[in-house]
Amino acid sequence: MKAFVIAEHAEAASALAAGARTLADEVAVAVVGSEQVPANIADAAYHVAVPEGAAADDAAATLEALLDDVQVVIAEPVRHVKSIVGKLAAAKGASVITDCLSIEDGVATSMYFGGVGQIRRKAKSGIAFYTAGAGSFGDAQPSGSNAGAEELSWVAPAAALKLVSSEPIQKSGVDLNKSDVVVAAGRGFSEEADLDLARALCDKIGAGLGCSRPLAEGAGWMPSETYIGVSGLMLSPKVYIAAGISGQMQHMVGANRSGTVFAINKDQNAPIFKQCDYGLVGDLKDVLPKITEAL
Ligand SMILES: Cc1cc2nc3c(=O)[nH]c(=O)nc-3n(C[C@H](O)[C@H](O)[C@H](O)COP(=O)(O)OP(=O)(O)OC[C@H]3O[C@@H](n4cnc5c(N)ncnc54)[C@H](O)[C@@H]3O)c2cc1C
């Protein structure tokens, strides 16, 4: 069996190659964009540079010929790669099973309706296409003998996208996927300046600061790359400290694989208190400075 991994980021390429190795005896990896394929993660490796004025979403035409002897495709769940894998699946007359939490014996477990339940699906025939996050394959380690990657020549599709413009977005500088301890701020922070209370706690305990979606996409106080939940980051840190977060399912599915969950909320009936290991009822403006001082 041969698996093919498509990623935009080198780290995801590595993690998904490790997962692919649990499903197939032969693993090939392609990275699309500016990052490179790490060495020793696959049996074959490819790199696709996106030409000036072209869109990464159109890399499907470049990759399609490589799928002829492939049974499984695993794609990093980021916007460009989702678009690429959708086009590849369409070209092969297949569907994509998205947001897989795990893939075992050809059966993929995903969430549905924003995380209210789980669904298990498998491809009936042809190539099985999946999107899966780096954490979907547990502690699997990549293996392989690729030294670098073969540079593929860009194949423009018949109806190509035209890149009109692009600009960098605000970056947090913190990779929450790698943080052992995450402090997550929610709408209980009524003013942007109060986030300094969470930042002070993070500095004290070496944590990364994340948030619920409203703080990133509603208030715009935090970079969108830092919100946690079904449509954001799916994390599994050792410790998760949720402050001013109610505990809606769409948020908690991104946090409930944490080792230990602490919750701070002024409402003793907040749903998060049913989903945490330790709960503290109190106003975060009082509680956070005291915790920071005490630690
Ligand atoms: C399709 C879909 C996808 C979604 N995806 C995501 C996602 O990926 N991530 C995500 O986060 N959300 C997502 N949401 C939104 C989600 O449903 C919730 O609306 C959101 O998570 C709520 O954020 P919150 O807990 O910060 O805010 P709220 O639900 O408003 O909760 C705020 C909490 O703060 C407490 N509080 C208020 N003041 C204080 C204080 N001074 N001290 C202590 N506590 C206080 C309140 O008691 C309350 O419990 C999604 C929704 C949909 C429909």
Biggest sheet: strands, sense, closure? 9 strands, mixed
Strand order, biggest sheet? Answer: 7-6-5-8-4-1-2-3-9
Instruction: Report the end-to-end length measured between terminal Cα atoms.
Output: 52 Å
Oligomer: single chain
Compute the average pLDDT: 93
Q: Spell out the CATH superfamily of the largest domain.
A: HUPs
Number of strands: 14
The ordered string of helix (H) and strand (E) elements is EHEEHEHEEEEEEHEHEHEEH
Question: Count of helical segments?
Answer: 7
Quick overview:
The chain is an alpha/beta fold and 295 residues long. The protein contains seven helices and 14 strands. It is 21% helix and 25% strand.
List strands and helices in order, with pairings.
Blueprint: E1 2-7, H1 10-23, E2 26-32, E3 44-48, H2 60-63, E4 72-75, H3 79-91, E5 96-104, E6 107-112, E7 117-121, E8 128-132, E9 150-151, E10 181-185, H4 195-205, E11 208-211, H5 213-218, E12 239-243, H6 249-252, E13 260-265, E14 278-281, H7 284-294
Parallel strand pairs: 1-2, 1-4, 2-3, 3-9, 4-8, 5-8, 10-11, 10-12, 12-13, 13-14
Antiparallel strand pairs: 5-6, 6-7
Helix pairs in contact: 4-7
Bound molecules: flavin-adenine dinucleotide (FAD).
Account of the protein in words:
- The mean pLDDT is 93.
- The chain has two domains: 2-151, Rossmann fold (3-Layer(aba) Sandwich), CATH 3.40.50.620; 176-294, Rossmann fold.
- The protein contains seven helices and 14 strands.
- The protein has 295 residues and is an alpha/beta fold.
- Helix content is 21%, strand content 25%.
- Helix 4 runs parallel beside helix 7 (284-294).
- 43% of the residues are buried.
- The protein binds flavin-adenine dinucleotide (FAD).
- Flavin-adenine dinucleotide binds at residues 114, 186-188, 212-214, 227-232, 244-246, 248, 250-251, 254, 264-267, 270, 283-285.
